[in-house]
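Ops channel
N.P.: pipeline sanity check, posting one input/output pair.
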């Protein structure tokens, strides 16, 4: 019978990927705060429904939704919450 030279503790531990512990060295301009069109459409639709489904306000709802999502992402990323799992 052959003996394995590796200890059992070594062979059963998952490999860990290196993660940055701080965003201090990153340029804040490198983050893309633009939400996906699907997210904006969903938020704009909910605003439309919550306001009683008024006609002719689709552009205003879209711009409001886009601004809200961008502000939420900027706030979250500014405080460093994007890397916490």
């Amino acid at each position: 019978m052959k003996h394995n030279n590796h200890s059992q503790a070594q062979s059963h531990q998952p490999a860990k990927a290196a993660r940055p512990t701080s965003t201090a060295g990153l340029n804040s301009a490198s983050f893309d705060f633009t939400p996906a069109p699907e997210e904006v459409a969903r938020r704009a639709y909910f605003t439309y429904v919550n306001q009683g489904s008024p006609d002719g306000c689709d552009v205003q709802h879209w711009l409001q939704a886009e601004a809200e999502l961008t502000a939420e992402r900027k706030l979250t990323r500014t405080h460093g919450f994007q890397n916490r799992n």
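N.P.: looks fine end to end. The radius of gyration is 23 Å.
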